[in-house]
Specification:
The complex is a heterotetramer of chains A (139), B (555), C (296) and D (218).
Chain B (H helix, E strand, L loop, with lengths): L6 E6 L11 H9 L4 E7 L5 H14 L3 E6 L2 H14 L7 E5 L1 H5 L5 H19 L7 E5 L3 E5 L3 H12 L3 E5 L22 H14 L3 E4 L2 E9 L2 E8 L2 E7 L1 E4 L4 E3 L2 H4 L7 E2 L1 H9 L10 E5 L8 H18 L2 E6 L7 H12 L3 E4 L5 E5 L2 E8 L5 E7 L1 E3 L3 E3 L4 H8 L26 E3 L9 H19 L3 E5 L3 E3 L9 H5 L5 E6 L3 E6 L9 H5 L5 E3 L4 H9 L4
Parallel strand pairs in B: 1-2, 1-3, 3-4, 6-7, 6-12, 7-8, 12-23, 14-21, 15-16, 15-21, 16-17
Antiparallel strand pairs in B: 5-24, 9-10, 10-11, 13-22, 18-19, 19-20, 25-28, 26-27
Helix pairs in contact in B: 2-3, 5-16, 6-7, 6-13, 9-10, 10-11
Chain C lengths: L4 H6 L4 E6 L8 H10 L5 E4 L11 H10 L4 E6 L5 H13 L4 E5 L20 H12 L16 E6 L7 H12 L4 E6 L3 H14 L4 E7 L4 H10 L7 H8 L6 H18 L5 E5 L7 H8 L2
Parallel strand pairs in C: 1-2, 1-8, 2-3, 3-4, 4-5, 5-6, 6-7, 7-8
Helix pairs in contact in C: 4-5, 8-9, 9-10, 10-11
Chain D lengths: L1 E5 L2 H8 L4 E7 L2 H4 L5 H17 L5 E7 L5 H5 L2 H5 L3 E5 L2 H10 L5 E3 L1 E11 L2 E6 L15 H4 L26 H11 L4 H4 L22
Parallel strand pairs in D: 2-3, 2-4, 4-5
Antiparallel strand pairs in D: 1-6, 6-7
Classes of the chains: A alpha/beta (139), B alpha/beta (555), C alpha/beta (296), D alpha/beta (218).
Chain lengths: 139, 555, 296, 218
């Protein structure tokens, strides 16, 4: 199916259902506006997010990936968020290897009630990706 | 991915609030054209009873085999809709939800863009739906018996609470008598009772219960098995016994330790710890000479704990009442964290206990068999005070009981930075360990006063009750499952599972492979990711589903 | 002609040896100058073998120069760059050219040097090299074949008194004694308290073991701190670092000479050990000053 | 088990210049367990290669497969169909696996994606340690089960060098000094006499390379 392309850039946010996904909901509750180009994929824990998911996202043509999990020491599964952090680091270096700027992937942590933080992260990441896009050589 | 699917899409405009600016029928028209979409319906409140019944009917009538719901956040509606489609005869996991309320219409004021995003999100949900798989429910039997480790007041109370809930309980205590610290304390806080009398009452209650087996001089050797079906080996004298339990509760409490390194001097006849003072207060006849002035000192090493604050206040009052001595408490800053403790502190003051607060640790010297304390009192603008005293009571720090580390590594349960047991998530699940079916109560994992410890005792008993009361629990069977053919038995998942829910088994008595224990699995998906052979499938968060969602991202 | 080192060892004299480092390349002027300066002031000149795994002019070649100019050379041999065949043939050659002293070392590891990708040989270790010397002396080689003309060497070994833990080091030391090491040269020592304790242990084993304390010239407080942090088995006490720090800018070496001289004086005065081995590391020209400062 | 590590992507790309169709071929045994060349790593490498070539404007075909053991001819043989579809094979196996594929498919170039590092064991998650040099003349009976040939940087047989640094190795302060470990183990077992013995030079030709073992037919 063809869906109309979202306002560029395309950003995928993998959101832990324990925290970040709820923070995204909270942003909606509070009617906080953030760029509509963010596509949320809900996961049970940040520890479910795989380096491969991030790489595949870039294969599909996304411009940026956010990995959003619980604050440190607040993971329902103890170290899921720490694992996610390490995997984001790994993904950054794998992407650098193929010439994609590692700053296109970032991990942030949030609490379920941090709607404003979610909106800020979404906006800042969008700005960051726009800036990186503008630095890309044309043609 | 199944070839011929019958997708049913249910849109909800949330009582018309979402369709104010956007025509949902336009969205419906787009969705209608998609392959495999059998049915698209616009509802005005899918959370209403009538709408649900209609949905069930539609599912049945149209032969829908995958349900996509576009409504509010799955955080609110997922469980409900799972029940709805289950009632319609579908496996509840054949459901995919697009969040078009919180994460679309509520977040994006530009309704056109919000609608575009909604369509994209629905597209992602449809894409995911193609890869959904049923997850079956299964019943797992559980042993309706609980092991409580540690026979102090928390353990005793936990056993009594479990007994009240009709759960057979074995309470083990490594010492020869139950009661732990209650045997050795001179007073209690906040209960105004003689500790030994309170203990006697509790022991009497314990003895009356048919379903509590209290074993003293008993130590845990090891525990095998998983939640619902643990086997504990317990050593009692020369005998060793083996029993099965459905749940295990740690109430091992804490030990105390005086750190002479922090103080820079050793204990003596006139420098003692609270543990040495309490027996003197319990039988004053043993005290040869009544001390004229007694000083308590806190905060020389680390900041004092709740336990040591209470100890200092209780004993200061005890000394004041039993000996009539002059009593001072020297501390950096007394921390009272409840109205009850505040009033206890006021009591101490009104009964003549002096509080001296310092910034710089006091100088303590020995002078002709007496102690001289030199301190700058910050309440008196740092004025130096020279305080002679006959007895100095230093602070003891709480340390984990001696074999905590052995038990924790044997059972794969975590220890926190100070070596006490670490809760699964201290904020959300204060009495849960990282392993299903193993719980903590009392001071083995937190710095608690007695009332708080007793509250935890009843909480934790309810935790165990919830798990065991039916003699069986319903679990999702193989929700996360390891393909034995692909498993290389590299142990990566077994090492990585935060809940120790993966064990090794032999398939057909031949090949060793890892297998997930459904009852212990808490569904985080960490194993799925770490597996280097990609042998682990998380059925309702599979790679296929996640990648299918990505599929729709590009325009 | 210099006195054979073996004779010096059996005399009652307080022994002094100094280290000579061969050049990187073929310009031998400084090395020759150092040899001429020191050959009559010390009992033997000890020539390093690709020291710190840095490729240089060979130890054997430099020993020949020492010999030519009338000095008494000690040939350092490490096991890093040559296998047992090369080591044996070098020993045969050295003997025929009048080199009579050999110091058997394991050698630093390759990666600290300037040929980081080279193969580290280590076919033998220092102890096995000592045995090799003794085997060649008995008229056979390591393959058990009879030699047509044997060798005779005064063979020494090294020890690190400040190694941590010390016990395994002492076990190996004893094995070297049993293998017939005739003298020991130590890693740099600065703390005489520790060194005395080590020597007490050595004397307890065998009163006749000859130990030459390693004296490395300090050039600055920074160098002392660096060695404490990065050179295993070297410990410079804080008091000495502080003392080095009192030196005016550019006068560090002078202070270092003073300290080295004082250490040597005390080692001799209190008869702590049998002699010293001075390692000036590139500043061989100040060795006479050190000797003067020590009263020798 | 054999421990391997992936080569930098840059090196891999340099080998593969000009190929349009590739098979990335994993191995399901040692290199799966050490996270270097199992199905997961094959997927990551293939994804990287696709991303890299997409950036260059190419859209090459990248097939992925993993065999149980790439050093077994019969198991690799089964991949004939896939190999025939591609211009080159990129193997994420150890050197033995790469050579098996090369031998079976002599017409197709085979490239190594990994460096085979050593024989070792997992220490903790994601960390592997070398502890066997495959010297062919096992010495462990004399050293309390700790191999100085591989765990001492210099492979010393008669005790530590002078570089023991608080029980660590002078070559790499992150690593334990093998002889300190051996000393402690033998001391613990009351067997220090083993350390006091002199051990003559090793037989470096215990395995005449290339190694070959012929067992009697079973």
């Amino acid at each position: 199916m063809k869906v109309q392309k979202a306002t560029s850039p395309n950003i995928i946010a993998f959101c832990c259902a324990q925290s970040a996904y709820q923070a995204a909901d909270a942003a909606g509750f509070m009617r906080l506006s953030y760029p509509d180009n963010i596509r949320v994929i809900r996961v049970p824990c940040a520890g479910r997010i795989d380096v491969l998911h991030i790489l595949k996202a870039f294969e599909k043509g996304v411009d940026g990936v956010l990995v959003l999990g619980c604050h440190e020491e607040a993971c329902r599964h103890l170290l899921g968020n720490i694992r996610a952090k390490n995997r984001v680091q790994k993904a950054k270096s794998l992407l650098q290897e193929v010439g994609i700027d590692g700053r296109r992937v970032e991990m942030f942590t949030l609490a379920p009630n941090q709607g404003p933080r979610f909106a800020t992260i979404a906006s800042e990441m969008t700005e960051r990706i726009k800036e990186l896009d503008s630095m890309k050589p044309q043609g | 991915m199944d070839k011929d699917l019958k997708l049913g899409i249910f849109l909800c405009d949330c009582g018309g609030t979402l369709s104010k600016d956007i025509d949902f029928s336009l969205i419906k028209t787009k969705l209608d054209k998609l392959p495999d979409v059998t049915f698209v319906n616009i509802g005005h409140g899918l959370c209403l009873k009538a709408a649900r019944e209609a949905m069930q009917k539609d599912i049945k009538d149209k032969g829908i085999d995958r349900v996509v719901i576009a409504a509010c956040s799955p955080e609110f509606c997922e469980n409900d809709f799972m029940n709805v489609i289950q009632a319609a005869g579908l496996n509840p996991y054949l459901l995919s939800i697009a969040n078009i309320r919180e994460q679309c219409f509520w977040a994006h004021p530009d309704k056109e863009k919000a609608a575009q995003k909604a369509i994209a999100q629905i597209g992602m949900a449809i894409s995911k739906a193609r890869f959904l798989e049923p997850v079956e429910q299964a019943e797992a039997p559980v042993t309706k018996e609980v092991l409580v480790i540690g026979g102090g007041i928390t353990g005793i109370q936990t056993a009594i609470e479990l007994s009240n809930l009709n759960l057979k309980t074995t309470l083990i205590e490594k010492e020869a008598a139950l009661g732990g610290k209650l045997n050795r304390l001179a007073s209690l806080y906040p209960i105004q009772a003689i500790p030994q009398e309170l203990l006697a009452t509790k022991l009497k209650q314990l003895a009356e219960r048919q379903n509590i087996d209290a074993l003293t001089s008993a130590e845990l050797i090891d525990i095998s098995g998983e939640v619902g079906n643990f086997t504990a080996r317990i050593k009692r004298g020369k005998k060793e016994l083996e029993r099965n339990f459905g749940a295990i509760i740690f109430t091992t409490g804490y030990d105390t330790k005086f750190s002479n390194q922090a103080y820079g001097f050793e204990l003596s006849d006139i420098i003692i710890t609270p543990s040495q003072l309490e027996p003197m207060l319990m039988s004053t006849s043993e005290v040869k000479e009544i001390p004229g002035r007694v000083c308590f000192i806190l905060d020389v090493g680390d900041e004092h704990s709740r336990v040591s604050t209470i100890s200092a206040l209780r004993n200061a009052l005890g000394v004041r009442q039993k000996f009539g001595s002059e009593v001072s408490i020297l501390c950096r800053n007394l921390k009272v964290d409840s109205a009850t403790l505040e009033s206890f502190y006021r009591d101490c003051r009104s009964q003549g206990v002096l509080f001296i607060k310092f910034d710089k640790p006091p100088k303590i010297s020995n002078e002709d068999g007496r102690i001289r304390i030199e301190v700058e009192d910050i309440l008196m603008a740092g004025q130096p005070i020279s305080l002679p005293c006959d007895l100095l009571v230093v602070e003891e720090t709480s340390v984990p009981p001696r074999d905590s580390d052995v038990l924790s590594s044997a059972l794969n349960i975590g220890l926190g930075p100070q070596g006490f047991y670490q809760e699964n998530n201290v904020h959300l699940y204060p009495t849960l360990s990282n392993r299903e079916g193993i719980f903590f109560a009392g001071n083995c994992h937190a710095d608690l006063d007695m009332m708080r410890a007793l509250t935890e005792a009843s909480n934790v008993a309810l935790n165990a009750y919830q798990l065991l009361s039916q003699g069986k629990v319903t679990v999702e069977a193989e929700r996360v499952a390891i393909d034995p053919g692909k498993c290389r038995f590299c142990l990566t998942c077994i090492r990585a599972c935060p809940h120790h829910a993966i064990r090794d088994v032999r398939v057909n008595h031949e090949k060793m492979v890892a297998q997930i224990v459904d009852l212990a699995c808490q569904g985080c998906g960490i194993c799925t990711v770490v597996c280097p052979a990609k042998a682990i499938k998380f059925k309702d968060w599979s790679d296929d589903q996640i990648l299918a969602e990505l599929e729709l991202v590009e325009g | 002609m210099a006195r054979p080192f073996k004779e010096t060892l059996s005399s009652e004299k307080f022994i002094v040896t100094a280290e000579v480092g061969p050049p990187k390349g073929t310009a031998l002027e400084k090395t020759l100058h150092d040899i001429d300066l020191l050959k009559d002031k010390v009992d033997a000149l000890n020539v390093t073998d690709n020291q710190s795994s840095v490729m240089r002019f060979p130890s054997l070649g430099t020993c020949l120069l020492v010999k030519e100019r009338g000095g008494e050379p000690i040939l350092q041999m490490t096991c890093r760059d040559r296998n047992r065949m090369a080591l044996q043939s070098d020993l045969l050659f050295a003997y025929t050219r009048g080199i009579r002293n050999v110091l058997c070392l394991t050698g630093d590891f390759i990666t600290i040097g300037d040929h980081k990708e080279a193969k580290a040989v280590f076919d033998l270790d220092s102890l096995q090299l000592l045995h090799t010397v003794r085997t060649l002396e008995s008229g056979t080689d390591l393959g058990g074949n009879k030699l047509d003309g044997a060798v005779e060497f005064c063979a020494g070994a090294t020890v690190t008194p400040e190694a941590n833990p010390i016990e395994p080091q002492l076990i190996k030391f004893e094995k070297k004694v049993q293998a017939g090491a005739e003298f020991f040269q130590t890693q740099a020592i600065y703390d005489l308290h520790n060194f005395k304790r080590f020597m007490k242990h050595v004397r307890g084993l065998d009163k006749n073991i000859k130990v030459l304390a390693g004296i490395v010239l300090l050039a600055s407080a920074g160098m002392a701190r660096y060695m404490n942090q990065y050179t295993p088995g070297v410990f410079v006490p804080q008091a000495l670092i502080d003392e080095m720090a009192t030196a005016e800018k550019g006068k560090g070496v002078k202070k270092g000479i003073e300290i080295a001289g004082r250490l040597i004086w005390q080692l001799r005065e209190e008869a702590i050990c049998d002699g010293v081995h001075i390692m000036a590391i590139g500043r061989e020209e100040v060795v006479p000053d050190i000797l003067a400062a020590s009263g020798l | 088990m054999i421990i391997a590590q992936r080569k930098p992507l840059e090196d891999i790309e340099a080998m593969l210049t000009g190929y349009k169709k590739l098979l990335v071929l994993g191995c399901g045994t040692c290199v799966t367990i050490c996270w270097a060349g199992g199905e997961k790593e094959v997927a990551i490498l293939a994804s990287q290669l696709r991303l890299a070539s997409k950036k260059d404007g190419n859209e090459p075909l990248t097939l992925e497969a993993t065999v149980e053991r790439q050093c077994e001819k019969e198991l690799v043989e089964a991949l004939k169909g896939s190999v025939q579809q591609v211009d080159a094979v990129l193997s994420t196996a150890c050197g033995a696996g790469v050579q098996t594929v090369a031998e079976l498919f002599p017409d197709t170039p085979v490239y190594p994606a990994l460096n085979t590092m050593f024989v070792g064991m997992p220490d903790r998650e994601g960390v592997w340690l070398e502890n066997c040099r495959t010297c062919g003349d096992c010495f462990l009976d004399r050293t309390g089960g700790i191999c100085p040939i591989v765990r001492c940087a210099k492979g010393l047989l008669n005790g530590p060098c002078g570089g023991t640094n608080n029980g660590k190795c002078e070559v790499d302060p992150e690593k334990d000094c093998a002889w300190t470990l051996i000393y402690r183990r033998l001391d613990q077992q009351g067997r220090l006499d083993l350390m006091r013995k002199y051990y003559p030079p090793r037989n470096f030709q215990a395995v005449i390379r290339p190694g070959k073992i012929e067992a009697l037919p079973a």
